[in-house]
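Researcher: Here's a chain I'd like modeled. Treat it as a single chain, no partners, no ligands.
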Amino acid sequence: MIKFRQVLAVPGMTPLLGISLLARTAITADAMVLTMYVVVALDMSYAAAGAVVAALTAGVALGGPLLGRMIDRRGLRTVLLATVVPQLVFWLTVPALPYVILLGASFAAGLLMVPVQSVTRQAIAAMTTAGQRRAAFALDSVAGELSYMVGPAVVILCAAKVSPGVVAWGVGAAIVVGGAGIALLDPPLRAEDEADGEAAGRPRRREWLGARMVAVLVMGFGVAMLLSGVDLAIVATLQEAGQVSWAAVVVAVFGVTSVVGGLVYGALPRPMPTWLLLGLLGLVTIPAGLAHDWPWLCVAVIGAGLLTAPTLSTVSDAVSRLTPAGVRGEATGLQSSAASAGFALGSPVVGMAIDVSTPTGGFAAAGLAGLLAALTGYLLSRRSPAAVPSPITWVDRPCPSIRRCIND
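Model: Modeled as a single isolated chain. Structure tokens:
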């Protein structure tokens, strides 16, 4: 735990992670809020709710790199102001919007979603040393798992007590408070030695978006697709067994083991390649389909849970190491877009596998998606020469070993 204490002792790191957790918990719950509003308040179908969520997700995927590029050029506070205000307007007006307008407004809200995750990752890369970064990204992944465990559950619980419109106001308020809080903190997005390098100019995209970066983005897409598919396969398995009410318990076990895995991985002395972690995650996901009731399913998802946060943290770490400081916002935006696309595609692909086979096929499809992404990432990273660290990013920044600097 010494590494985690060192990370949390970095000035500004603890409040950043705390505010980020609040905002991310609300953001992970936004899809559930919109679903509840369309189904309950508007009395429409789940298909209609899915269309609204899809519009929101598409907006997030498209907006990530655009907002990241704006951060690189205009600065953090400018972008936060440009996103917090639209979020305030959107969530305040959700209960008054008819369905057709809500559909378009959801896309716009996604396009201008407060970039909490990408900003947090940029700040972590800037505020930590090379030796601290893996533990810091592990904490970030743990926070992400906690947000996925808490956010949707709180929305469902609150929706049972108050109207979906009021819940929408609450989620919107948390997103706005989180964005405003980060703006007040104004964490550095460049290390001290990187600030002077900005005068060297913005590197061209082809200089940093090479095969190795594409490999990392493909693996980020793959792990998101796998996780989205696993959630659906869990529900399908328990529905077939007549135990769907236990789905929350299984998901909670998955989340808790992911938190444990992230903490253990962050404390390890050596990192592991992203492709290896993702490949192992895919392998242990496939046999989870052999479980046919909730107690065994809880046991079956432990292996996947232990590998989830470590895999997510290595993706973030790799993006930060392969990206020059001048384009780090755009790169982390691309990472968020890849994850959004993976989450959006995972459910329909795994759903098709379940429809043509059984819930066991759903776990197999999710695991194979992870394995395919891991293999693609491995081949892409090995086909390209080792990236030469950019002087903008790495001047006077210590690196414990050559293997640590170039290995995914």
